Amino acid sequence: EAKQAPAKAPKLADPMEASIEASTQEMIRRAQRLQIETVFDRAVTMKPCAIGLQGICCKNCAMGPCRLPLPKDGIEGEDTRKGLCGATANTIAARNFARMIAAGAAAHSDHGRSVAETFLAVARKETNDYTIKDPAKLIQIAPYFGVATTVEVDGKTMDRDLDEIALGVAEAAMAEWGKTGSTLAYLKRAPQPLQDKWKEQGVLPRNIDREVVDIMHRTHMGVDQDFKNLMKQGTRCSLADGWGGAMIGTDLQDVMFGSPSPLQSEANLGIMKEDHVNIIVHGHEPLLSEMIVAACQSQEMIDYAKEKGAKGIQLGGICCTANEILQRHGVPPAGNYLQQELAIITGACEAMVVDVQCVFQNLANVAKCFHTKLITTHPMAKMEQENVVHIEFDEHYAMQDAKRIVKLAIDNFENRGADIMIPRHKMKQIAGFGVESIRYHLGGSFRGDYYTLNDNIINGRIRGIAGVVGCNNARTKHNEEHITIIKELIKNDVIVLTTGCSAITAGIHGLLTPESAAVHCGPGLAEVCETVGIPPVLHLGSCVDNSRILLAATEVVKAGGLGNDICDLPAAGSAPEWMSEKAIAIGQYFVASGVYTVFGYHMPVDGAPVFRDHLYKDMEKIYGGKWDCEPDPIKHAHKMIAHIDKKRKELGIDK
Ligand code: XCC
Ligand code: SF4
Known about the structure:
single chain, Substrate Binding Domain Of Dnak, Chain:A, Domain 2, Rossmann fold, globular, binds FE(4)-NI(1)-S(4) cluster, binds iron/sulfur cluster
């Protein structure tokens, strides 16, 4: 007779194995007690496909999917693996990789496009809700777009009318997505030798949209079947992101919302308040969230919240929308990517307002267990679940839309259940850095003074510069790699620039304070940080703000004393817990800008060793930067430090 299998309890994540962060562990436990499934549980139940993981599954036509596993004992002699059409492992891995770049560049650049469209509305005076908050930034970028900032009147040079400059810049910026006959305007900002390299390689992006479309065409069945040529286009498209769509996005956001300057805030789930209306904004585009900040601060809304029995409104953020409003308004992040479900599981989230990118569809299932209103706002990003409210954001009625959303959250306050648990953990942080504030706080220039960055790198107090950026990934222990790597770098006198969820992580773990320098830094870096009063880890913003790292590196090169190009600098990049396709686009534009870039977890190239060598070795001969992968965080940091030391030696500044 048939044996009755005992009903199996679902596999659950071990909170201590899932994260190093206390409030995350607490909330995973709470979720399990309430029988609400989170990404951490799903990660133990569902394992990734080993072949896809290695980059060697092709589903670009209906004769596949063709899977090309590596033979168990490796490849001896010729690699004869091929798909039905004959596509090799290299072709398949390179096509997949290029498509990731295309998707990542599309995401950043489409965000940039929305910003540019809004700026055009500002320049045309079609909206009153947005203005020009940083005219200096507008005047600074205008020349790159060929827009004059002065006029000749009666033989005298006068400042040109700001509205005229704005209109010129807005129209020229919009054209970057589809122009013909030239290359992207911002490429001119890079060091000349780097521009020369790109030109020689034929990878100067023509316009932003075209480079994405080119990849989608080229990776269609039976087009480009040469991994080197595929990566040439991958590079071109990534440059259209970093030196194009993302950089324009950052700059025009600065023009409209103000360039960040250092400010104090807090980070982690503990920023939510039991007696306040808690609103969490999540996603990437700050167009709506800027207005939500203003709406939450308006007396009208504060009074309304009090009328409804709350003490006030607490706004917080998740992911890069959080970073955008942290940098400019000091609004505290409630958490990084892997904490999004947990913010709702507190039971104290009246509304979670999402725009685009990095938003879990499971938020809808979690929200169903509480009173939380989950509100989608972007025409591009809806959810099928019935409990999700869609309030489409229109930049022409921005403030009106924002108030409607805030009011909905306030009205929801009275629906809160009795079972609430907000973790107590939060940290103080200093955020809000940018190229301008790095210059300002380190001696007012990059070179020629006791305090300046270049001088301190040359004299060895600062060993080098690291960019540590990117996501969390439920396949690795939440926050562990970020924090271990950053601590190891600053212990070895490497100053860290951070963005994205890595920056939120650094904030949560207390590394974004000037005081942390004395605790965690080597003597040289500690001395610099203590003298000028900056943290050893500088928060440079969201993922589109990785463009700020490119520009900071360029300023360092141009200030002199450290070689002629970004690849000469004692610098390295890292994305320890990456998961997004955007991370691959960012990684490639850093590599193509001359940066040694190490990813954690894994890279989807291991199934195609020849293609992997192209990324890990050949790239350096072409662009001066190369890819690497190291899941062990201590080894990861030391690979970066070894590269920094090698560059110091080449510059003759090793002691
Ligand atoms: Fe998304 Fe930008 Fe990654 Fe965080 S770091 S998980 S991309 S929010 Ni960009
Ligand atoms: Fe297979 Fe080639 Fe089709 Fe890819 S394109 S699925 S390798 S037949």
